[in-house]
Every structure is written in structure tokens, then in C-alpha cells.
Records
---
Amino acid sequence: MESHMRDEAALRAFVEDMARLLGDWGFPRMAGRVVFTLMAADERSLTAGELADRLGVSAAAISGAVRYLSQISMVAREHVPGDRRDRYRLVDDSWYEVTVAKMTLLKTLADAADVGAAAAGGPGTTAGARLAGMRDFYTWVQDRLPALLDQWAAEKAAKAD
Amino acid sequence: MESHMRDEAALRAFVEDMARLLGDWGFPRMAGRVVFTLMAADERSLTAGELADRLGVSAAAISGAVRYLSQISMVAREHVPGDRRDRYRLVDDSWYEVTVAKMTLLKTLADAADVGAAAAGGPGTTAGARLAGMRDFYTWVQDRLPALLDQWAAEKAAKAD
DNA sequence: CACTCATTTCACACAAGTGTGAAAGTTCGT
DNA sequence: ACGAACTTTCACACTTGTGTGAAATGAGTG
């Protein structure tokens, strides 16, 4: 049946697309490739060698990428005793986690805007009022995001029944 | 009164911080500096020369930045007749607009995930199900963002009464 | 302990982005 | 039309990120 056929060429293109997309957003390209190779894998985990093979890149590139991804808790390293190879596994819902993590940017923006508003002379000045407005917007959005994400989790759980 | 004093040094630091922050997210640094110099200005608009002076950068750098910012509709160029200098003004709520614009990324991500899910063999496969989950998440968030932003606009309008 | 396979580190090449100075192009006032 | 003020374009230097091959390190096996 067609719907159960893996289109390897299309998947490679997909991985590359996503890596480029994340790359535009400041995410290291190779790390993006690794994440989406794992996403696109039917196996639960892959070795560094498998990742290198599927991506056609050097072992060194994989090494750097998985180190980065481990640090930010996006992949887990599984050391199987009795095997020289480490296995790498995606942390559950890692793209969800990434999204959440990226949202800390909102707090950073809000904080910076607050500092700027004060430096501009407070809300009594044109610039101060403008920067305070920016701060309020990002603060407001940030405050409401957790509830939004909870709602997603709840709907997903309901669907799974 | 202290609260009406501009702290120029702190504002320059603020501008640089924000530019670096946006830079990490794929936004051109100099364009970021220009945006936040305008945000931090009490004047409604600034000339290229004023921007260059305040930032301590070359006129060429300003030229490139405002061209970029005009293209993405973040600053408006105001050509005052009888004056050789162009004036640059922030489009209202431009940081809000930027945020909204960036959210188109969610659709791009969802679309790419959909393609990936199909290439992986559909929801019957491990990878296909995983990618479909990613697609569903981004689609869901994207669907709910407009309402969230409308709510902000409504609350802001209510406060302004 | 020596052997072998897997991973990491390192120096390098290559590509992309960033900002500058100088020259060229525009626009207004006279 | 000329000159002055302002802006844009261009070639260059500098920095940063990216991935490679080769050497070094680490881990299991006989």
C-alpha cells in the first residue's frame, strides 16, 4: 500500500528544509538535521554512525550536533552497556519543548523594553511610553501562553481516550 | 524630576542589546539598531544623518538598513518636499506587526511537517505519526493566535478609555 | 595487554554576513 | 546650469558559522 511506503528522497529533502528553516531562526543547521532525521526515523533511536550515513556528513559533524542537542535537552544519549556505540533518542515532544523554550525570548524582550522605558525617562515621555507599550505587549502574551499550551495538552489527552 | 531624564548611555546599551537579541533570531543587526533607535527617540521621525550620528555608524550602513526595513514595512520613508533629507518613521506598532509576521513561520512549519508525514508513510508508521503530531501542534497554535492577538487589541482599547 | 571500533578534538578551508570608506548619483537652492 | 547637501552603490576587510579530514582519545573484546 502506498500510504505505508517511505519516500527516502522526500524525507531527505524534508530534513534539509527544516534544518534550513530553523537555521534562519538561529538554530544550528547540523543540529536541525539531526533532530529531523530522528523525527523521520521509524527507529526509536539511532547511533551516531547511522545519523552520519543517512545525512551523508562526517562523524565530526554529528559529534558536535549531538553535544549541542544534549546540552539543551533535545536528545537523550543512551549508553548501552556492552556496545561501543551510543544511541541517540529524541526527548519526547522535543519540538514542543523547543517552542516553549523559545518563548523565554518574550520575557527577555519584555525585560529589555522595561529597562529601555526607564532609560527613556518613563511613561511621561514619548519614547518611554512607546517602550512601555512594547513591554506590556510581550508581558501580556507571555502571561497567556502557558494556559494556551496547557489547553493543547488537555485537548490532546482528551483525543487519546 | 528624575523620571523625565533621558539616560543616553543606557539607551545606547538598550539599542545594542535589542539589536543583538534580534540578530540571534535572524534579524539583520543594523536594521535592529535602527528600529530601536527610532523606538527610543522622542522625535516622531529621524533623518538618516541623525540615525548615523546616534549610532556612530556610517551613512552606508543606515542606507542598507532602511532599505531593508522599508521593504518589510517596518519603517516608512517620508520625503519632505523642499528638504534634501528623507525622514524615517516607525510604522505604528511595528514590533507587534513583526511578531505577527514571524508567526507565519508556524504555518511553514506545519506545512513542512505535513509533507514529511506523508513521505514517512502516513500515520500508520512511527515516523509518520510523530510528524503528524508536530503538524497538528503547530496548526493548532496557529489557529488560536489570531484570537489571542485580538484579545490584546481589545484590552488595550478598553484601557485607553 | 593489544586490537579494534566508535567518538571526540583540532586545525583548516570555505561560505555568509557585517560595516566601512570612497566614488557616484540625486535633489534642492541659487 | 552650478554647487552643496544628502543618499546610494561598490569593492574591500573582518568576523562568524559550518563542515571536513586526520589525529587523538576512550571502551569493549580476545
---
Amino acid sequence: MQHKLKDIARELGVSTATVSNTLNGRGRVSEETQRKVRSKVEELGYRPSMAGRALRTGRSGVLGLVLPDISNPLFPEIAQAIETAAARAGFGILIADSHGDPDAQGQALVRMMQRGADGIIIVPCRGTRIDETTTPVAVIDAASTEGNSVSADHRGGGATAMRHLLQLGHRKIALVGQSRRSAVQIDRVEGMKTAASPDCAVREIWLEDEAKLDYVSLLSQGFTALVATSDIVALTALTEFQRAGHAVPHDVSVMGFDDLSFSSLIVPGLTSLAQDCAGIAACAVAHLASRLDGNPAPPAQILPMRLVVRESTGPAPSPTSNLTNKETFQC
Amino acid sequence: MQHKLKDIARELGVSTATVSNTLNGRGRVSEETQRKVRSKVEELGYRPSMAGRALRTGRSGVLGLVLPDISNPLFPEIAQAIETAAARAGFGILIADSHGDPDAQGQALVRMMQRGADGIIIVPCRGTRIDETTTPVAVIDAASTEGNSVSADHRGGGATAMRHLLQLGHRKIALVGQSRRSAVQIDRVEGMKTAASPDCAVREIWLEDEAKLDYVSLLSQGFTALVATSDIVALTALTEFQRAGHAVPHDVSVMGFDDLSFSSLIVPGLTSLAQDCAGIAACAVAHLASRLDGNPAPPAQILPMRLVVRESTGPAPSPTSNLTNKETFQC
DNA sequence: CTGTTAGCGCATTCAT
DNA sequence: ATGAATGCGCTAACAG
């Protein structure tokens, strides 16, 4: 076992209170003794026991992080950002996975509280709402969700995506989402639709409705661009197009959301809208830290999304060449 | 604040020890009082304070998990598996990210210990070794790494990959890794090479050596298959091939490692070698749990990898059609 | 079988 | 400016 507060107090001939006061800056302690204490602490390699402190102060110095589905590829970034922000603020992160199941999510919340988490950051399952509890909770969801504490501006991101394609001359655009139960996806699609110009034809497609979407047939229907609510879906579309011999972005432009790790690595690189994960994480941690200091819950914060232009989006094909694919040109 | 042990003891007219004994099964307590205690606990919704217990027992009930780079897409699965395994064993998971930096890794280890982690599971940075400390550590790396506690059979996986391609008739195969500093990647490539038949030409390529690898030119050099040490690299190769108009697997077979989440979603689906994340996680947690019970460190465990065959691998093209690509056929 | 007692390591009064 | 004393909630000895 390590050295205790008492040890270093005894060795210095002072009281434990003095040592504690020095270390926590709380105190009226003379410069002289402060130096002695600090050097002794260094010498002995003393580390305060979190258990003792937690019992005394009722604070564990730990925040819970509950995620809906760790296997979602966006998770790594958000988790990393939160861990970094929390560490900077002196908190540890206790992690839990709800497997997308509302029951498991509830149990995870209870487990975190039982473990003494000072606060909880949660990215809720689709369609679940979080009832406020005794321990403060920061919710990262969509701006349109009640109880949301901080989120990316998914609507604004959708609008930005749409404007990007309009600028490139696209006028017939497919909007592809996975599930309507996701408030995030709904917001993104809404944003796209509101930004569409009157002369722009838009078709909204939800994968949960279709057995299997035939991406390639969209081209013969005159669509020149596709925006997916996730880079995952965009990647699927991209590979389908390329496999069928259609050039991206020459024949069709493709873009997604979240700027996942692979999006910059594939060929062509995927144009995407990135969340400000670091900003969101910092907000969530700050939110909790502030409430732990006794302040009331701050208003929800919405952080802008950032357009990352890569090679998967380009000028709309001219009407004549619209149905022409690469092979035909080459022969 | 919640109810304390004392409360429920007082309400029942028994001692705190009796309640504690009942709850921890430690005790010589009559059936009668046990029932009364349990029902009172239920009624009051009593939850033991981890802080108090931790201080008393010196055990936090928490394991640290230190990852080299959360943004690695394999992380989600391994983290999820470990969280699940730990929860089953009654542990919480305190997470930390070393950003691939050995210094940060060391600091993360210290932070975990300071927070009172009972044990630490670590996936080390490339090229780092973990010195055993006072708190038990389980290392998840490669079988060839000293100090490794549990890992997938990366060599065996490499061999399996090679045999899969040999069976399909491939005899000129490119092996693509990212960094030689990764023991995991080394093992995978070694496994591939040992399984290559004498009549099979193999070329080992490390991306850290090349400014930018020209995947497409490999085809004109007669390669009919490519194995990457990661699905990420395989995905890059796949999209490059498809963009250039080469059909996968008709013209070239591609396979990777780790069966990342996107591998089943792209077209064609990526053939890959999957780690048994759940098994690895269970082993790591069991390893730590056993050592916390006072047992000596168990020997390292190696878990087999599983071949997941999808559409990106197929029969080798016949020698005559080897240099022929899709467009030429169609014209 | 059950109750009493004594800390675990720390932060915090209240005296000095 | 410092020290002595107190108890956070719990469990492990020991006593009954």
C-alpha cells in the first residue's frame, strides 16, 4: 500500500490537516510549511486515496458515459473527446454500453449512479427520453429532442450539405436515411429539405422501409447526387456505384455525415459533415461540472457542423451525359 | 443521499453487521432475519455505497481499460466486449486513451492506479512494453510480445488467409501492412508467409515505406490477390480497384483483418479474419479476477481467428484473362 | 447465530 | 497559522 496522509504528516511533525490544506489549496498555511510538505509529498511519491476522499466528500471524481451502441463507428471519436475533456477537468470516465436497448440503458444509468458517478453523460438510444434524476445528467442527442443538453447542429448540417450540392449544379437529389426513430437523422433530413431550392427535386428514402435499396437504378431515374445521413450508408452507395462501373463524382456525387475514420481513406475520399466532437465533449463536461458546483442546468447548446469537401462530390453531369457511364465513353 | 446500512439496521432492530453479512452472503445469519433484511432493503431501495466499501476493503470494483487509440475502428468492439465481460463479473470499466503515445500511456496507467482501479487491461501502443506494477495488468497484444496475457492468434489468422487464397487458385499475392512496429501486423504477415506454398509468389509491402502505393499497378504485375493486415487498408485497395474499373473479385481478390463494422456493408462485402473479441475480453477479465483472488498470473492465452468469407474473394482469374479488365470484356 | 467495536484515508470543523 | 478531533459508510475481527 502507498503512503497515507498521516505518514507524511508524522514525518514532518505537522498535522494531517495542514498537509491536506496544503495539497488542496484550501488553506491558510505558511509558505514555509507548504514547501516542506510539497517536497515530502514528492519524495514519498504520495498519492491521495480516492476512496478516502470520496467517502469524505461524497464525490467520486468520476463521470459516467452511457453510449447507445459502442459498435457505432462514430463512438470512438466522441468517447475519445469526452475522455480527454474529462481528464482535463480532473474526472475519470466510467463507460457503459446500452446495446441500443432502452432497458439496458436504464440499467446502465442505475449502475453508474450506484458506482458513485458524480454525473452522467448519455447519448440516448433512439426514441428514448431521459428523466432527470438525483445525479446530474448531460444528454447528447438532437436539438429537437426534449431534455437535450448539447448536440451538433444537425439541421444546419443538412442545410449545408444541400447548399453544397446546389452550388455544384445538382437539381435532383436522393436523401437516404436509415431510421425515422433517430431524431438526429430526422433533423439532418429536415435541414436538407428546408435548404432545397424550389427548382430542386428531392426524394426522401428510409432504408428501414426498403427491403434492399437499388442505388444504381437511381441514376437512370435522373438523380445526380445522393446524401446519406451517415458515412456508413454513403460508403455502401459509393461502392455500389463504383462496382456497377459508374464514376464518382463524374456520374454521381455522394456525401455523408460524421466524417468517420475511413471516409478520408477510401477512393474517392468521401465528402462529409463533421461533428465538433471535441466541442461537444467539452460542453457536456462543462455542463456537468457547472451543475456539480451548484449552478442550475445551463440552456442547451448547439454546435455547428463542418463541411469537409473531398473527392466524392463534383459538378452535376450535363443533362445529355447524365445517363452515360464511363465504359460507354471509353469504347 | 440514499439510505445507509445503519438505517436499515436500526429500522429492523438488528446490527449493521447482520445486514452486511446478509447482503454479502458472508454470514451466519438465520433465514428468518435474512428475509426481513432483504425485504427492508427492497422497501427502502437501499444501495450500498461503493465509496464506503472501497475504503474498507481496499477494492474499488473497477478495472481500468487503456487503449492505444480510441479512433481505431476495432476499438468499439473490443471495448464493448470488455465492458460486457466486466459488468458480468461485477466490475465497472474506467477508460483511458493513450493517443498512441507511450508517455500518455504511462500517465494513463498511473491515473488508473491513482483512481483505485483493482486491475488494468491494456492494449499497448506499438512497440511499448508494460512493466508489471503493484496492480495487476492484463496485456492484450500479440502472442509474440513478451508480457502478453491474451491475444488473437494473429499468425494462425495469417495462415488461414493465405490458405483461403491458395484454395481459390491464387499464386501471386500481395501482402500489405502499415507498420512494422506493430507486433500484431508482423505476426499476421509472418503467418501468411509460412502458409504460402512453394509455387506461390508473395510480395510483402509496408505502407510506411511507400509514399503512396499504386494498388492498380499491382494487377499489371500479375498479382491476383491482396491481403491487407487491416480491413481499413483492404477497403482503400478495394475502392481504388473499383474506381479504376477493375471488378472485385473477378479481376482481383481482396481481403483484410478484424472484420470491422463496415466490412459487411460495402459492395462487395469484404472477406476478413475476425478476432474473437468476446473471448479475448472474457479472458482478460478472468485473468485479472483470478489474480485479485490471489492466484498467480495464468499463462498467456491465444484465441483462434475466424475466417469470414464474403464476396471480395473469388477464384483466381485464368492466366489469359489476367490482365483483362471489365471494360475490355464489355466492348 | 448475532451484536459490538474498530478502523480504512481523508477533509473538515473548532480550538488553540 | 496550525493541531486535535470527528465521522463519511462500510466490513472484518472478535465477543457474546
---
Amino acid sequence: MPELPEVETIVRDLNKEVQGWTFFDVWTDFKKIIKKPKRFLQFKKELKNKKIKKVRRRAKNILFDLSEWKTLLIHQKMTGHLLVGQWQFKNGKWLPPAGPLSEKFNTFIHLLFTFKNTRMLALSDLRKFSKVELWDTKELDGSEYVKKLGPEPLDKNFTFVKFKEIFQNKKDKIKQALMDQKVIAGIGNIYSDEILWEAKINPLRQTTVLTDKELKRVYLAIKRVLRKAIKLKGTSISDFRTISGEKGYYEKERKVYRRENEKCKRCGSKIRRIKMGGRSAHFCPTCQK
DNA sequence: CGATTCCCCTGATAGC
DNA sequence: TGCTATCAGGGGAATC
């Protein structure tokens, strides 16, 4: 599942590739993936001849700023992959040439943009949870959805004072608060587990009872873990790939996520997995208090 | 209003 | 072996 570090990796890579590309056509075999505008033909028509100015990230969304003040939003949810390359249509499927792109998830391409320079951008998504929307830039940036998103954890303005203010007022378990996009943007199941291990805090703790010292550890862990994950181009534990089909390296750094019954790398205890609100949380019961 | 459950999907895996 | 039930989970909607 792409979270902040994975989406950031994608956005940085995309900016090196797609700036200046002009949309030519759109193909899909699953119109439901496009949420806005509702009619596919209109979506197609509105994209045609728009040029990509730059790509940015907000929370886990990839935002393509286009000419004429349009913005294309792509949220990859669990299993979405954006891939750039030269493609060919064979036997009813879009297929890449040989190379790292020739992996199984490429058979799950459900949306494909072609550009005037004959290049293509594909969205593959095994489970079809991805969401694609085309907005007026101003309308998107002023939308309820964007306004309600929490701060970007790696933003300079996201100070400890600000963090403390938000988390001390949020009545929730710390793990859930970290994953709540309205509290703080971009963190999901993998990195909330990793951040809490780093901070030595039990995921079940209520945010309101955390001491200043403990909050400071969480705050620092957020920055440290996310920065390191970006440096390593993310985690490929759930099939993440960069836009050229390469894996991220953070999974080797992983301390708790999907390591149930393995040894804690700090104290040697068995990592436990519990259910929290329908999601699994992984932690060390000995050193996370 | 807040908290919980359901739902969208489909491949992998566990259980029989 | 092969079938079926369960699980994975981001996020929005529906429900309690």
C-alpha cells in the first residue's frame, strides 16, 4: 500500500519524466475508477491537449497540475501502480516490453493515458480501489476534502508545538491518530507501526495520556522514519514499485510490520500482532510501553 | 456527533 | 487435489 514515502518517490520520479507531456487519449476497461467527472467521455475530452506542468503530492494523493488550471488526482489506495513506458496492445491487453516492467501486476492495467510524444502512463491496480479525479485546480485546493486533511509531517511548518497541539486534542489511540488523514497526512499501516516501534510507544496508548517526553519521541520518529523511507524509495512489502518497476528498499529496514512472532531487533522479544479497528497492528510488547 | 461496520475488489493462504 | 472461507486494508458511506 503506497503511503507517504512511496507516493513521494513516485512523484519525484514522475517529475523527471512527464513534465511537458501533452495528453492525447485515454483508455480504460474499468470506468468506475474515474470518479470525477462521472462520465468517461467527458473526462477524456477534458484531458485532451492538456499539458503536464508539474506533479505534486498531498497526503497519499498524486496531483498532476495541468495547463488551463486543471489538476488530475490519482490515489492508488492499496494496490495501484503508476508505470511509465512504451507499451503495445496485444491480445486485448497492454503489455510492456522486456525488463523490470514485465511483472505480473502489469496484467492489471485498467487505465492508460497516451501522450502526443507517443509515451504512455499506465495505472495498474489488481483490486481496482484506486481513485482518479479531474478537478479545476482552485476548486480542488479549496475543497472540503483538501481542507480537512491534516498537516504534512515533513513540512517545515509542522513543528513539535503544532504536533503536540493536534495530538493532545485528539481522543484516539495513538496508532489510529497517526493513520487518520485528518489528523496527519500520509501515514498508513506500515509506517504507523514502524514509527511507534521507533518511539517505543504501544499502539494502544491513548494520545491524551502521553507525556511530553513520549510525544516528542513520536514526533521525532515520524520525521526520522519517513525521511529514511523516502531515501530508500519506500517499502515493497505489498508490491510497491517505482514508476520504472523497481522495488523500494525500506522493507529491509522494517522493524515490526508483518514480522509477527519474529524477534524484536531491539530487545529480542517476540513481535505481536493485534487487531485494531479492523486493521492489524504489529509491535514489541516488551519495549513499546 | 462520534464510533463502529460495511463495502469496494481479487490474489494468497489456511482449513477441510 | 480442489474447493471454500478468510484475510489483506485506504477511505468513504452507512449504520449504530
